[in-house]
Amino acid sequence: MSFAHRYTGLIDRYRDFLPIRDDTRIISLGEGNTPLIRLHNIPTSLNKTVDIYVKYEGLNPTGSFKDRGMTMAITKSLETGNQAVICASTGNTSASAAAYAARAKMIAFVLIPDGKIAQGKLAQAMMHGAIIMQIQGNFDDGMRLVKEVADHAPVEIVNSINPFRLQGQKTAAFEIIEALGRAPDYHCLPLGNAGNISAYWMGYSQFYQEGIVNKRPKMCAYQASGSAPFLRGHPIDNPETIATAIRIGNPQSWDKAWNAQRESQGWFDEFTDAEILATQKLLAEQEGIFCEPASAISVAGALRDIKSGKIPEGSLITCTLTGHGLKDPDTAIQQSTGPVLKVKAELSAVKTAILENIS
Ligand SMILES: *Cc1c(COP(=O)(O)O)cnc(C)c1O
Description:
By secondary structure, the chain is an alpha/beta fold. 43% of the residues lie in helices and 14% in strands. The protein is built from 15 helices and ten strands. The protein starts with 9 loop residues before the first helix and ends with a helix. Pyridoxal-5'-phosphate is lined by residues 64, 66, 92, 160, 190-196, 245-246, 292, 294-295, 322-323.
């Protein structure tokens, strides 16, 4: 008898639901299987009876949900015999591509926007040995170039237009259903390039069609006001937001996202940067959960829609926290109001500081 059970990643876990052969060499870093944490203090202060859970995707190997898609994309690319992959990225895709390519001994080329990438993400791509091209343009420019160059050079695209990315990412919906024993009533998440909403809808729909659950959640997705093509109804030029992971004006999975919204009878909405940062702070201070700014918009959306009654009392809500707060330390430190006390290295000074701050 063996009691050993090492978790070996989401492809191994869900291979029956993924396009994987028995003899495929899997490139994994143990991604997936992330915690679904029930919020406690924030719902209590709302005075509404709701259950809110956050899927903490920041605990994936490179700190974002992109790893779910990347394990599939790199595994399939290696299987096909490719030597190199390429992506455009606001940061997390490049971090993930760089790590999984390193593992597969492949070359990763990453196109990142000039100056608008969080430090942690850049550090990751550099450490994993990706070849980084910082372009004088934004994510949408990078995406356009990647699609063009893939026709002219031996590189495979590992952005979410790569169909295997969404296959991997859909497993987050599987995990949520298994954790809850049911599908949530509402699923809230940030909306950028729109791959993730499409993947979740695919995952929820697959378990629904298999008869594992008898309902699917309404999909509620949120954009930053300065970067909200889905709210404007068309792609936009020059998207701007502090939430750099969703600073995208021309989302690639446009039709799939609209389809998820329509079929699920969910909705799209938008938030200002100030509202996004306030919710990031709220989660960190009230629940002990540190996510990056883009991730916090999912909880901002859930809270606003609960308060307005759009999400009724008695609902079970899941929110995806897409990336870890440590990805973007600069934004976190800039908006922190908590004091760093300057204290003499003496017992009496430390004691005084404690007494002054306990009420
Ligand atoms: C990629 C990313 C998003 C946006 O996801 P899409 O699939 O592009 O809509 C949101 N938050 C974080 C942290 C991301 O890395």
